[in-house]
Specification:
8-stranded mixed beta sheet; 15 strands; 2 domains; 262 residues; globular; D-Maltodextrin-Binding Protein, domain 2
């Protein structure tokens, strides 16, 4: 596995945090859990993983900025670069003993994501990409799928929970899309949904109401794997508004049309 010094630092941090999470995952019933809000939990494991990642990344690049799910943002001495980190994407899966969660780390340079790592520690699958260098899973190059028929295409999304405002729109999306496609999956980890689009496991993914740390790394994976990404509402900034469509080149427009017409 060859990459830049920054990418290697990111992979090292993700693996170290992943090892800590796997250890806690084996003892998930004993985790001390506090509620941040309806259906939105934070655990000791989550906080410990972010601490590990922050120490590794900020120790290696102390002048970079930082945006993480579980800690305050830091404006770096270098205003052009910042880390965007989700230490445990899929926390609810983790807390229920479901082995579908990931560490997500992205590096942003001058407003553009240039390096990305998504580590599925439970399955030992590490997805990584750098701008202009393609997308990879472990040691293998990955590409979006080549399917071009809606009836053969599998999609993924997130269904809002706990009274979140995007639920009516998502239900409308599902009502329009599901009769036309091969199926829709809701696995509860947006970073992995995007990685799966990059790896050709899904033809596309869409969701509303996401945070930058949910999206940043996965967006670059899809682009570097030959896919397309865009906002659900044309003209929106994806990271700012948190709504995204990601798909292979053949299915992006058909999927976007269904979602945007709704």
């Amino acid at each position: 596995m060859q990459g830049s010094a920054n990418l290697n630092l990111m992979i090292k941090a993700a693996r170290k945090a992943g090892r800590s999470l796997v250890k806690d995952f084996r003892e998930v019933e004993n985790l001390q859990v506090s509620a941040k809000g309806p259906g939105d939990f934070v655990s000791r494991a989550d906080l410990a993983a972010e601490k590990i990642i922050r120490e590794e990344l900020m120790g290696g690049r102390p002048t970079y900025g930082w945006v993480g799910e579980e800690s305050d943002a830091v404006e770096g001495q270098d205003p052009t670069r910042r880390w965007i980190v989700d230490p445990l994407d899929g926390t609810t899966n983790f807390l229920h003993g479901l082995p579908h969660w990931a560490v997500s780390i992205a590096l942003e340079h001058k407003g553009e994501i240039v390096s990305a790592v998504v580590f599925d520690a439970a399955k030992d699958e590490i997805y990584w990409a750098e701008k202009g260098s393609g997308a990879w899973m472990n040691e293998s190059r990955i590409r979006v799928s080549g399917r071009n028929r809606m009836t053969e295409s599998l999609f993924a999304t997130g269904v809002p929970f706990g009274g979140r405002p995007a639920l009516p729109a998502t239900l409308q999306d599902l009502a329009r899309l599901m009769p036309a496609c091969a199926g829709v999956r809701r696995f509860g980890a947006a970073a992995l949904d995007l990685a799966y689009v990059a790896a050709g496991r899904y033809e596309g993914f869409w969701e509303r109401g996401l945070k930058p740390w949910d999206l940043a790394a996965g967006l670059l994976l899809v682009r570097e794997a030959g896919g397309l990404v865009g906002p659900i509402r044309p003209g929106d900034d994806i990271l700012d508004k948190g709504s995204v469509i990601a798909a292979n080149a053949e299915m992006f427009e058909p999927l976007a049309k269904i979602l945007r017409d709704a």
